[in-house]
Amino acid sequence: MSEHADVLIVGGGPVGALAALRLARQGRSVMLLEARAKDAEVRDARALALSWHSRRLLEEAGAWAADLPATAIDTVHVSQQGSCGRTRLDREDLDLPHLGAVVDYPALVAGLGGALEQAGVQVRWQCRVTAVKSLSQYACAEVETPDGSLLLTGSLLVLAEGGALAETLPGIRRLTHDYHQCAVLAEVETELPPQGVAYERFAHDGPFALLPHGERYMLVWTRSQADAERLAAADEAVLRDELQQAFGERQGRILSVGPRATFPLALRQASQVTSGRVALIGNAAQTMHPVAAQGLNLGLRDAVGLADALEGAADAGDARALKRYAASRKLDSRAVVGFTHGLIKLFDGHHPLMNRLRGVGMTALDTLPALRRKFAGHLVFGVRG
């Protein structure tokens, strides 16, 4: 049994869903393939830091409702433990209402689900893609469903998830770097309310972010694998005390730390983002370290870049259009991945001289308005040629 659509999209997360909405707006038939069941609870502890630009892209697609529970980010405060120097980025630097917003992953997925339904996008639930292939006139996906195997075809196949599937395609290999680290996630209550300030702190035991999350913060702390396991199993007071020591008194006392979750961290980047009639976006194209919170924002720009490149193409798998997509995303992807990876290397180690040099660099960025605005613009809008 075979079914056909102009575009098959593998992965119904935020990046795949946004691509589906943008491509359906062009009048294309889109089939979105998602492994989970339609009514299954989305169990994901992540709070996502989205740039103002990403929020606008989701709003344009009808996926950011006025009542979506989100917390605004107006200021980002960057510092390092045990040394002077800091950088403060404000919404006024870019003349924006906000720099970004923090939203829980399940809430964002629910908003996108409603937008997909309203747009009439066909979503095939409980579809696990086992193989993909690109032929001269179409691409195909082998799918396992509760009712058996299925062969689906499309003029274009988009991988928004499934980096391992991409490795089976000609010309694509994944470059991988295992950080041997985990991210520890927990909700944190401080004595003072967030008031729109997000903190990025390069601490001795690993960088962490405190993202405003309602009246509390969401902690994302990079630790060694052993440390992450220890903190996940320890009493609340252990993590609270270690965080207080690393963060200081900027928000007063840390009053409580909620349940913890951990995620392993690795960098994975595809050597190219197209192969025949297959295009890669989001996590299929690159998976990044969470420092600077750029991964999802980059993936959403992939989705929009693909749709923009295909605008006006009669064939969704047109080689020239896919070449335009690959060229348009090259600079942004390499710059953001390189910047994120470089931050981890730059702040690895705490020799007094290196601490002082990093402090001088952050102070210079903070005191040069033109440089600060350019840096903030790259974080919010991406790197554009």
TrEMBL record:
Q: InterPro entries from the entry?
A: FAD-bd (IPR002938), FAD/NAD-bd_sf (IPR036188), UbiH/COQ6 (IPR010971), UbiH/COQ6_monooxygenase (IPR051205)
Q: In which pathway does it act?
A: Cofactor biosynthesis; ubiquinone biosynthesis
Name its co-factor(s). Answer: FAD
- Does this entry carry the keyword rRNA processing? no
**All residue ranges annotated as the FAD-binding domain in the record:** 5-339
| KW Flavoprotein (keyword) present | yes
Origin superkingdom: Bacteria
Q: Which Pfam families match?
A: FAD_binding_3
Keywords from UniProt, A to Z, are:
FAD, Flavoprotein, Monooxygenase, Oxidoreductase
Question: Which family does the UniProt entry place this protein in?
Answer: Belongs to the UbiH/COQ6 family.
Could you tell me what this protein is called? 2-octaprenyl-6-methoxyphenyl hydroxylase
The organism encoding this protein is Pseudogulbenkiania ferrooxidans EGD-HP2
